[in-house]
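User: I'm writing a short methods note and want a consistent example. For Preprotein translocase subunit YajC, I'll paste the sequence; you return only the structure tokens, no commentary, since I'll be parsing the reply automatically.
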Amino acid sequence: MFKLMQSYSGIILIVVMVAVMYFLMIRPQQKQRAKHQNMVSTLQKGDKVVTIGRLHGVIDSVDNTNKTVVLDVEGIYLTFDLSAIANVVPAEKAAAVVTEAKSEAVEETVAPAESASEPTSEEAK
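Assistant:
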């Protein structure tokens, strides 16, 4: 009986290793892929998204037959594969980013005007 268990111990070890690899690597990746597929299938015009290259844009159109999406990035229209969309930006976060960008733009336009009104060292002489 003991000899029989020794002959099967190698096979049992391989089966256990395959099971561990499945539960630690393959299964989580399948869940992540299914979650991404679900997110991509619900995309619609007007959604704010981030690509895998970290490019932020607004969806202009979705073509499910060719599996492409056209993004509006500050007036520039770019075409991407649907698989290139990393995630959808929640509406409240997108609004916060837009207001922050607008306030930074206002600060940038105000700052040069203030520095232009100050006399330079040559003008002071």
